[in-house]
Design goal:
Number of domains: 2
Strand order of the largest sheet: 3-4-5
Strand content: 25-35%
Mean pLDDT: 75
Helix content: 25-40%
Radius of gyration: 23 Å
Shape: elongated
Number of helices: 3
Structural class: alpha+beta
Order of helices and strands: EEEEEHHEEH
């Protein structure tokens, strides 16, 4: 986390690790506690309303990053943040969520059929090897 200050007074913090995320100020702000490569702590807080803008700026997959699509912004209908005791759970609600759910069900079925076919191939090959 190098602190860099430009000539305009803008300060940039580059964190090496994220230590903690807290909801503070009666649920109105999100506080990020970070640490730099030298181990120096820093924190930043945002109004909770900004979280939607931050989350929508995140690319959908690592493949997007590798394909240099890091500037992609995807629409987010809403989000929820819950404290589950062991940590916070962030749920993102995408406008095409129902479509994604249908495609995931189809994907699971296709993978199941592929697994059955692999088992069948192994059984056939075992019969060839044993001479049956």
């Amino acid at each position: 986390m190098a602190d860099r200050e430009t000539m305009t007074g803008h300060r940039r913090i580059e964190a090496a690790e994220l230590n903690r995320i807290e909801i503070i100020d009666g649920g109105r702000r999100l506080c990020l506690s970070v640490r730099d490569a030298a181990g120096r702590p820093a924190s930043m807080s945002l109004p909770i309303e900004c979280l939607n803008a931050v989350v929508t700026a995140v690319p959908r997959s690592d493949r997007d990053l590798l394909a240099d699509a890091a500037r992609s912004v995807h629409r987010l209908d809403s989000w929820t943040l819950r404290d589950e005791g062991a940590g916070l759970v962030l749920t993102l609600h995408l406008p095409d969520g129902a479509r994604i759910a249908r495609l995931m069900r189809l994907y699971v079925r296709v993978v199941a059929v592929q697994g059955l076919m692999q088992v069948a191939i192994i059984l056939v090959m075992a019969r060839f090897v044993t001479g049956l």
